[in-house]
Write a structure and sequence with these properties.
205 residues, Alpha/beta knot, tRNA processing, alpha/beta, 7 helices, five-stranded parallel sheet
Protein backbone atom coordinates (compact mmCIF):
# COMPACT_ATOMS: atom_id res chain seq x y z
CA UNK A 1 0.00 0.00 0.00
CA UNK A 2 1.24 3.48 -0.85
CA UNK A 3 1.47 5.64 2.25
CA UNK A 4 2.18 9.27 2.81
CA UNK A 5 5.87 10.02 2.42
CA UNK A 6 8.14 11.50 5.08
CA UNK A 7 8.55 14.69 3.04
CA UNK A 8 7.21 17.93 4.58
CA UNK A 9 3.51 18.02 3.90
CA UNK A 10 0.60 20.42 4.07
CA UNK A 11 -1.13 20.15 7.43
CA UNK A 12 -4.51 20.71 5.77
CA UNK A 13 -4.63 18.38 2.76
CA UNK A 14 -1.80 16.13 4.03
CA UNK A 15 -0.12 16.10 0.61
CA UNK A 16 3.61 16.83 0.17
CA UNK A 17 4.12 20.60 0.13
CA UNK A 18 5.24 20.57 -3.50
CA UNK A 19 2.01 18.75 -4.41
CA UNK A 20 -0.37 20.66 -2.12
CA UNK A 21 -3.97 20.46 -3.38
CA UNK A 22 -5.41 23.29 -1.28
CA UNK A 23 -5.56 25.81 -4.18
CA UNK A 24 -8.07 23.50 -5.91
CA UNK A 25 -10.19 22.60 -2.87
CA UNK A 26 -13.50 24.50 -3.01
CA UNK A 27 -15.62 25.73 -0.12
CA UNK A 28 -19.13 24.50 -0.92
CA UNK A 29 -22.37 24.51 1.01
CA UNK A 30 -25.06 21.84 0.87
CA UNK A 31 -28.42 21.26 2.50
CA UNK A 32 -27.48 17.61 2.93
CA UNK A 33 -25.19 16.65 5.80
CA UNK A 34 -22.56 14.03 5.01
CA UNK A 35 -20.70 11.77 7.41
CA UNK A 36 -17.79 9.74 6.06
CA UNK A 37 -16.79 6.85 8.30
CA UNK A 38 -13.27 5.92 7.29
CA UNK A 39 -11.58 2.66 8.17
CA UNK A 40 -8.39 3.49 10.12
CA UNK A 41 -6.22 1.68 7.56
CA UNK A 42 -7.13 4.35 4.99
CA UNK A 43 -6.12 7.33 7.10
CA UNK A 44 -2.49 7.54 5.97
CA UNK A 45 -3.07 6.46 2.39
CA UNK A 46 -1.54 8.87 -0.09
CA UNK A 47 -4.62 8.74 -2.33
CA UNK A 48 -7.13 9.62 0.37
CA UNK A 49 -10.17 11.06 -1.40
CA UNK A 50 -12.40 11.12 1.69
CA UNK A 51 -10.24 13.86 3.20
CA UNK A 52 -10.61 15.95 0.03
CA UNK A 53 -14.39 15.63 0.13
CA UNK A 54 -14.52 16.63 3.80
CA UNK A 55 -12.28 19.66 3.19
CA UNK A 56 -14.28 20.93 0.22
CA UNK A 57 -17.80 20.55 1.62
CA UNK A 58 -18.81 22.51 4.72
CA UNK A 59 -21.53 20.06 5.73
CA UNK A 60 -19.23 17.04 5.60
CA UNK A 61 -17.51 15.38 8.56
CA UNK A 62 -14.79 12.72 8.44
CA UNK A 63 -14.77 10.16 11.25
CA UNK A 64 -11.84 7.72 11.37
CA UNK A 65 -12.99 4.77 13.44
CA UNK A 66 -13.70 1.05 13.15
CA UNK A 67 -16.43 0.83 15.79
CA UNK A 68 -19.03 3.36 16.88
CA UNK A 69 -19.49 1.82 20.34
CA UNK A 70 -17.49 4.57 22.07
CA UNK A 71 -18.76 7.41 19.87
CA UNK A 72 -21.90 8.68 21.67
CA UNK A 73 -21.88 11.97 19.77
CA UNK A 74 -22.01 10.21 16.41
CA UNK A 75 -24.49 7.62 17.63
CA UNK A 76 -26.80 10.52 18.48
CA UNK A 77 -26.09 12.09 15.07
CA UNK A 78 -27.13 8.89 13.31
CA UNK A 79 -30.25 8.45 15.44
CA UNK A 80 -31.46 12.06 15.17
CA UNK A 81 -35.08 11.70 14.02
CA UNK A 82 -35.15 15.32 12.81
CA UNK A 83 -33.11 14.16 9.83
CA UNK A 84 -33.65 11.52 7.17
CA UNK A 85 -30.45 9.46 7.47
CA UNK A 86 -29.42 7.00 4.76
CA UNK A 87 -26.40 4.76 4.30
CA UNK A 88 -24.91 4.81 0.82
CA UNK A 89 -24.02 1.17 0.32
CA UNK A 90 -25.06 -1.07 -2.59
CA UNK A 91 -26.61 -4.50 -2.29
CA UNK A 92 -29.41 -6.71 -3.58
CA UNK A 93 -32.75 -4.87 -3.70
CA UNK A 94 -31.23 -1.64 -2.34
CA UNK A 95 -33.21 1.26 -3.87
CA UNK A 96 -31.45 3.90 -5.93
CA UNK A 97 -30.80 7.25 -4.32
CA UNK A 98 -33.28 9.88 -5.43
CA UNK A 99 -34.13 13.50 -4.76
CA UNK A 100 -37.83 12.63 -4.83
CA UNK A 101 -38.78 11.28 -1.41
CA UNK A 102 -42.01 11.59 0.56
CA UNK A 103 -40.24 13.04 3.56
CA UNK A 104 -39.89 16.73 4.40
CA UNK A 105 -36.94 16.25 6.75
CA UNK A 106 -33.47 17.39 5.69
CA UNK A 107 -31.17 14.56 4.69
CA UNK A 108 -28.06 13.01 6.14
CA UNK A 109 -25.92 10.69 4.07
CA UNK A 110 -23.41 8.20 5.49
CA UNK A 111 -20.49 6.99 3.34
CA UNK A 112 -18.08 4.20 4.28
CA UNK A 113 -14.51 4.80 3.14
CA UNK A 114 -12.09 1.95 2.58
CA UNK A 115 -11.54 -1.01 0.30
CA UNK A 116 -14.71 -3.00 -0.33
CA UNK A 117 -13.54 -5.57 2.21
CA UNK A 118 -12.89 -2.89 4.85
CA UNK A 119 -16.17 -1.09 4.09
CA UNK A 120 -18.10 -4.32 4.54
CA UNK A 121 -16.23 -4.86 7.81
CA UNK A 122 -17.31 -1.41 9.03
CA UNK A 123 -20.91 -2.34 8.26
CA UNK A 124 -20.58 -5.75 9.92
CA UNK A 125 -19.02 -4.35 13.13
CA UNK A 126 -21.63 -1.63 13.61
CA UNK A 127 -25.25 -2.73 14.13
CA UNK A 128 -26.29 0.93 14.16
CA UNK A 129 -25.18 1.24 10.54
CA UNK A 130 -27.05 -1.94 9.66
CA UNK A 131 -30.23 -0.37 11.02
CA UNK A 132 -30.05 2.58 8.64
CA UNK A 133 -32.06 2.56 5.41
CA UNK A 134 -29.67 1.90 2.54
CA UNK A 135 -29.50 3.55 -0.86
CA UNK A 136 -27.34 2.88 -3.90
CA UNK A 137 -26.06 4.96 -6.78
CA UNK A 138 -27.01 4.37 -10.40
CA UNK A 139 -24.22 3.14 -12.64
CA UNK A 140 -22.40 6.35 -13.51
CA UNK A 141 -19.83 5.17 -16.02
CA UNK A 142 -16.13 4.62 -15.51
CA UNK A 143 -14.39 6.01 -12.45
CA UNK A 144 -11.67 8.63 -12.86
CA UNK A 145 -9.74 6.88 -10.09
CA UNK A 146 -7.17 5.30 -12.37
CA UNK A 147 -4.59 4.31 -9.76
CA UNK A 148 -6.36 1.88 -7.46
CA UNK A 149 -7.85 -1.49 -8.31
CA UNK A 150 -11.60 -1.81 -7.84
CA UNK A 151 -14.06 -4.71 -8.03
CA UNK A 152 -15.52 -3.33 -11.27
CA UNK A 153 -15.03 -0.53 -13.75
CA UNK A 154 -18.10 1.21 -12.28
CA UNK A 155 -16.68 1.34 -8.75
CA UNK A 156 -16.21 4.94 -7.66
CA UNK A 157 -13.78 6.63 -5.33
CA UNK A 158 -15.38 8.00 -2.16
CA UNK A 159 -15.21 11.57 -3.44
CA UNK A 160 -16.82 10.57 -6.74
CA UNK A 161 -19.60 8.71 -4.93
CA UNK A 162 -20.20 11.69 -2.66
CA UNK A 163 -20.37 14.16 -5.53
CA UNK A 164 -22.75 11.96 -7.52
CA UNK A 165 -24.97 11.41 -4.48
CA UNK A 166 -25.15 15.12 -3.66
CA UNK A 167 -25.86 15.95 -7.29
CA UNK A 168 -28.81 13.55 -7.25
CA UNK A 169 -30.21 14.91 -3.98
CA UNK A 170 -29.60 18.59 -4.83
CA UNK A 171 -29.62 18.79 -8.65
CA UNK A 172 -29.81 22.58 -8.57
CA UNK A 173 -26.29 22.81 -7.08
CA UNK A 174 -23.05 22.24 -9.00
CA UNK A 175 -20.84 19.98 -6.88
CA UNK A 176 -18.32 19.25 -9.65
CA UNK A 177 -15.69 21.66 -8.18
CA UNK A 178 -15.19 19.06 -5.44
CA UNK A 179 -13.56 16.82 -8.06
CA UNK A 180 -10.87 19.36 -9.05
CA UNK A 181 -8.32 18.45 -6.33
CA UNK A 182 -9.04 14.75 -6.93
CA UNK A 183 -8.24 15.11 -10.63
CA UNK A 184 -5.10 17.10 -9.84
CA UNK A 185 -3.99 14.43 -7.39
CA UNK A 186 -4.43 11.63 -9.95
CA UNK A 187 -2.61 13.56 -12.68
CA UNK A 188 0.23 14.37 -10.29
CA UNK A 189 0.65 10.73 -9.29
CA UNK A 190 0.71 9.60 -12.92
CA UNK A 191 3.32 12.22 -13.80
CA UNK A 192 5.43 11.20 -10.81
CA UNK A 193 5.49 7.54 -11.77
CA UNK A 194 5.97 8.27 -15.49
CA UNK A 195 3.60 7.36 -18.31
CA UNK A 196 5.49 4.18 -19.25
CA UNK A 197 5.29 2.83 -15.71
CA UNK A 198 1.65 3.90 -15.40
CA UNK A 199 0.61 2.15 -18.62
CA UNK A 200 2.61 -0.94 -17.68
CA UNK A 201 0.62 -1.28 -14.44
CA UNK A 202 -2.67 -0.03 -15.86
CA UNK A 203 -2.70 -1.38 -19.44
CA UNK A 204 -6.43 -0.85 -19.98
CA UNK A 205 -6.52 2.84 -19.04
Amino acid sequence: MTTLSKRPRCQRCQRPLDHCLCPWIPDLESRTRVLIIQHPSERQHALNTARLLALGLRQCQLLVVERLDDQPEWQAWLRDSNWRTELLFPGPDVPLLSAAVEDSRPRQLVLLDGTWRKARKLLYLNPLLQELPRVALPVAGKSRYRLRKAPSAESLATIEAGVLALSLIEPQTDFSPLLKPFERMIEGQIQAMGLDTYHAHHPHQ
